[in-house]
Fold:
Amino acid sequence: AIPVQEDKDEDLLPRAPIVTVMGHVDHGKTSLLDRIRNADVIAGEAGGITQHIGAYSVTLENGKRITFLDTPGHEAFTAMRARGAQVTDIAIIIVAADDDVMPQTKEAIAHAQAAGVPMIFAINKVDKPTANPDKIREQLSQMNILVEEWGGKYQCQEISAKQGLYIDELLEKVLLEAELLDLKANPNKNAVGTVIESSLDKGRGYVTNMLVEAGTLKIGDIILAGRYAGRVRAMHNEHGKNLKEAGPAVPVSILGINGAPSAGDKFYIMDDEREARSIATKREQLYREQGLRTQKH
Ligand code: GDP
Structure:
């Protein structure tokens, strides 16, 4: 069986918030995520090559850390939710000020609301002469979403992702929201977390990008992830830096799992490799049987 380690209150330490950016296509998600990535004060020091591992952490000038899921669109968010995984603490809903609250914006809002994830609104492209942020506020209010500056409860920030305007202000609002959530995790136990994405690399074998949610993941750990198992052979972060261990809210890319688990699969650390493999095999069998059954009907 998968060992569950209960936490005592005194074991819980503050952890970084995990944030997802959602919004309509072309409203600026990628531009914003790129901007924020460049705000990282330790990225330069690391000197490594930036790699896409499905998420990244930024350390701000005030020393605070925020982790962003950077899988574009809200597909990852939805896929993870479909598997019962809830990794996001805060959603940034981005809306272009020269456009409208669009169907995908509404979908993103509905997803965040259904998941009970607090939202912060980023009204983007305010550098454009045709930008009309008040129109966006108005359209949001028609959905019963009242922003703070209109007396409501939702934090909202005008930004220009392209020109890098008011990004710090937006991140401050994320930190404020995170403070209210009082996010904590126990770093001193076996790691648990969620798979963000995985793939087969010709040279390196299966590469699994995941987010540690609690505990500390270490090289050599016996890991069970969805229908697959293995041992953590190597681990690196989004700067390509090799890691020996990774604590709560740290995104990592690892080698050593014997297959490609799905986005949203949970991972656990086991004591016994044979048991990990046996659970993985049973899950794989069940998965195939269910697959066959759904094909028949
Ligand atoms: P995504 O589809 O939501 O990821 O949107 P992108 O980040 O790819 O942006 C779509 C387009 O809008 C690109 O051509 C960006 O250069 C442009 N864009 C994004 N943010 C801004 C902004 O703040 N101002 C202006 N003028 N253009 C922007």
User: Anything to note?
Assistant: The longest helix spans residues 273-296. The longest strand covers residues 192-201. Residues 23, 25-31, 72, 124-125, 127-128, 160-162 surround guanosine-5'-diphosphate (CB under 6 Å).
